């Protein structure tokens, strides 16, 4: 028996990287998928084809998670197509680097609005139908930089620490009503986002990582599957860390 048979999972930012890996993993476990991403449908063709090959249904909705009207339209289209969303993965995220004294205010706003406001907006628009059914899973992709901070990424670290705080607060609010909310705080994972890091950042990070290498998307997706499936039924407000030892709690 597949672990997500018949479930409907909506994953933001799933055209690339970790979100793409989660979408394909969930589809291979029997879920039908909504992909909400800023890119065009054509740019998401890899993941759409992979999901169709697995025999699952997939809907792509071009979405800006930081924009309320866009998120509302995305939710309406998803509910219209599938009738419900059982699993929401707030994965869409961006990363830029800048020392604080030089940080453009637009960078702060863009990073916080995508990573934190986007998580709030997508959750807000979809949690009502989960609470009505007394059933749902919300998985927020945070980052280890939200736990330990990082130089030249104060906006990113603040947004991801915000995602962790949001996860804990919401878990306290809704767990008894059947919706389980948790976060994943990956360490450095080889994706286009990590490729945008400076070489100096990459070598400094490699030197301090206990495991001595960056992770792969396939080393994050099992954690998402755990939190989305019945195996994860006693996880509430947790932040799980596939991070190569970057953070040890
Ligand atoms: N790669 C890492 O090392 C790492 C580590 C910790 C946390 N994370 C987090 O994991 C998540 C996925 O990152 P990734 O490494 O796969 O990055 P990625 O750049 O490969 O993918 C991010 C996706 O989000 C989409 N996106 C960006 N802004 C959006 C918006 N406003 N609305 C909708 N979609 C938008 C992009 O189009 C892209 O498809 C992010 O939240 C990131 O912060 C990544």
Automatic annotation (TrEMBL):
It comes from freshwater metagenome. Coiled coil: none annotated. SUPFAM superfamilies: NAD(P)-binding Rossmann-fold domains. Pfam families: adh_short. Residues 7-192 form the Ketoreductase domain. Belongs to the short-chain dehydrogenases/reductases (SDR) family. The lineage of its organism: unclassified sequences, metagenomes, ecological metagenomes. InterPro entries: KR_dom, NAD(P)-bd_dom_sf, Sc_DH/Rdtase_CS, SDR, SDR_fam. Signal peptide: none annotated. PROSITE patterns: ADH_SHORT. GO terms for molecular function: oxidoreductase activity. This is Unannotated protein. One of its GO terms (biological process) is monocarboxylic acid metabolic process. Keywords: Oxidoreductase.
């Amino acid at each position: 028996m597949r672990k997500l048979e018949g479930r409907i999972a909506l994953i933001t930012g799933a055209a690339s990287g970790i979100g793409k890996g989660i979408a394909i993993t969930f589809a291979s476990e029997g879920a039908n998928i909504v992909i909400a991403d800023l890119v065009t449908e054509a740019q998401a063709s890899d993941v759409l084809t992979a999901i169709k090959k697995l025999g699952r249904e997939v809907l792509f909705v071009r979405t800006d998670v930081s924009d309320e009207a866009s998120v509302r339209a995305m939710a309406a289209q998803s509910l219209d197509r599938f009738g419900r969303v059982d699993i929401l993965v707030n994965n869409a995220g961006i990363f830029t680097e800048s020392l604080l004294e030089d940080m453009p205010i637009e960078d702060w706003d863009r990073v916080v609005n995508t990573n934190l406001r986007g998580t709030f907006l997508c959750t807000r628009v979809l949690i009502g139908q989960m609470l009505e059914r007394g059933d749902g899973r919300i998985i927020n992709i945070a980052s280890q930089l939200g736990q330990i901070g990082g130089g030249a990424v104060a906006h990113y670290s603040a947004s991801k620490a915000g995602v962790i705080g949001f996860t804990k607060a919401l878990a306290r609010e809704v767990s008894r009503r059947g919706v389980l909310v948790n976060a994943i705080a990956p360490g450095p994972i080889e994706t286009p986002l990590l490729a945008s890091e400076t070489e100096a950042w990459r070598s400094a990070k490699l030197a301090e990582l206990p495991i001595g290498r960056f992770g792969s998307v396939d080393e994050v997706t099992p954690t998402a599957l755990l939190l989305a499936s019945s195996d994860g039924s006693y996880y509430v407000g947790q932040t799980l860390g596939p991070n190569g030892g970057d953070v040890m709690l």
